[in-house]
Amino acid sequence: MRNALNNVQPAPMLDKTGIARRISQELEDGWYVNLGIGIPTLVANFVPQGIEVTFQSENGILGMGPFPFEGEEDADLINAGKQTITALPGASIFDSATSFAMIRGQHVQLTVLGAMEVSDTGDIANWKIPGKLVKGMGGAMDLVASAENIIVAMMHTNRAGESKLLSQCSLPLTGVNCVKKIVTNLAVLEVTPDAGFRLLERAPGVRVADIQAATAGRLIIPDHVPEMQLG
């Protein structure tokens, strides 16, 4: 059973942009960062002032900037999700073999991925739903196998109101025991493999009870859970 809590579906208090803004606070000066498809790509628009990070994409670019303004898109300049992007001064473009060598060689300090499910031991499922056609897994399995710091950006529940934070993933796994932190529309949580999800922050206006009701996996709730500060 993917959600033992009868399809609880709290109102999303944080949109996709808010999730990306919160994740941008995890960036550190000098880091190389890989952004997965979906919500993670928005993180490039919210790099905090005073720090410099270099975004890497597995299709072969180092030095991605924010998304282009409408009318300024270059159809030849895209990320791994085939979205048009910008390139910062000093950016370099190369083949995917070189890009994956960077990933497999652990030269990327942070990877931000979307997910369909995450287990309370840090397993992630983000590439396939049985019975649905997919073009391929892309670079996800290389990223989760090589990265030491993985943050997942996703909604807390699916469209049916079922929890996406589970005791065990029901979908085919992308990686095992690899996720360190999760940022959803309801909360920020860290994965403690021995004890489950630890609640670190709650989204503005969200109660701890809302998060608890929307989480199917083990959840550790400290005595005080601060509200997210989005700047």
Automatic annotation (TrEMBL):
<keyword id="KW-0808">Transferase</keyword>
<dbReference type="InterPro" id="IPR004165">
    <property type="entry name" value="CoA_trans_fam_I"/>
</dbReference>
<dbReference type="InterPro" id="IPR037171">
    <property type="entry name" value="NagB/RpiA_transferase-like"/>
</dbReference>
<dbReference type="InterPro" id="IPR012791">
    <property type="entry name" value="3-oxoacid_CoA-transf_B"/>
</dbReference>
<dbReference type="InterPro" id="IPR004164">
    <property type="entry name" value="CoA_transf_AS"/>
</dbReference>
<dbReference type="Pfam" id="PF01144">
    <property type="entry name" value="CoA_trans"/>
</dbReference>
<dbReference type="GO" id="GO:0008260">
    <property type="term" value="F:succinyl-CoA:3-oxo-acid CoA-transferase activity"/>
</dbReference>
<protein>
    <submittedName>
        <fullName>Succinyl-CoA:3-ketoacid coenzyme A transferase subunit B</fullName>
        <ecNumber>2.8.3.5</ecNumber>
    </submittedName>
</protein>
<comment type="similarity">
    <text>Belongs to the 3-oxoacid CoA-transferase subunit B family.</text>
</comment>
